[in-house]
Amino acid sequence: MRILVLSDTHRSLNRALLLMNDIIYEIDYVFHLGDNTEDAEFLRDNFNVPVLCVAGNCDHDCSVADEEIIELENKKILLTHGHKYGVKYDTADRLIYRAQEVGADICLFGHTHVPFLALVRGIIVMNPGSLSLPRGNSKASYGIIKIEDNDIYPSIVEWR
């Protein structure tokens, strides 16, 4: 199973559309971690792949949840934008505590527009960065998670 992880597209889907056209046959899911849920809906409507999303701090007046906990391939995955966990200030505290609380194997967040990938207290923690508006001297990026034979292979990919 291969999952494309996006965040913080902010209604600027040019790179996301090029990426989706390039890898649509290689992925089984798209996870969009907020800012803007309309972008996730557009991808869901225009590509034949399941798209799951959570609301971010810029997603006002939407009915999308701030957080989702899903299970795929016997792995529990926490999806959140991260703004409610203070990820701009301290990734490892409140967010990791929440991931431990729900028994997550993988914790995905956005909000900072800066890619991050680490194993923290036995949990894979990933921020895919932003394809549209990278920050902090980072380049445009996205995440790929491959789950195979009960193993998890996460990666951050910089845009061409």
- Count of distinct strands: 10
Cα(first) to Cα(last) distance is 23 Å
Q: Give the amount of beta strand, in percent.
A: 25-35%
Fraction of residues in helices? 10-25%
The whole-angstrom Rg is 14 Å
| Apparent shape | globular
CATH H-level homologous superfamily name: Metallo-dependent phosphatases
CATH topology: Purple Acid Phosphatase, chain A, domain 2
Give the spatial strand order of the biggest sheet: 3-2-1-9-10
pLDDT under 50 segments (min length 5)?
Answer: none
Q: Tags for this entry?
A:
160 residues, alpha/beta, Purple Acid Phosphatase, chain A, domain 2, five-stranded mixed sheet, 3 helices, 10 strands, 18% helix, globular
List the helices and strands and how they pair.
Layout: E1 2-6, H1 14-23, E2 29-32, H2 37-46, E3 51-53, E4 67-72, E5 75-80, H3 94-102, E6 106-108, E7 116-120, E8 123-127, E9 141-148, E10 151-158
Parallel strand pairs: 1-2, 2-3, 5-6, 6-8
Antiparallel strand pairs: 1-9, 4-5, 7-8, 9-10
Give an overview of the whole structure.
With 160 residues, the chain is of the alpha/beta class. It has a single domain, classed as Metallo-dependent phosphatases (Purple Acid Phosphatase, chain A, domain 2). The chain is 18% helix and 33% strand. It contains three helices and ten strands; from the N terminus they run E-H-E-H-E-E-E-H-E-E-E-E-E. The chain has a five-stranded mixed beta sheet, with helices on one face. Strands 4-5-6-8-7 form a five-stranded mixed beta sheet, covered by helices on one side. The radius of gyration is 14 Å and the shape is globular. The mean pLDDT is 95.
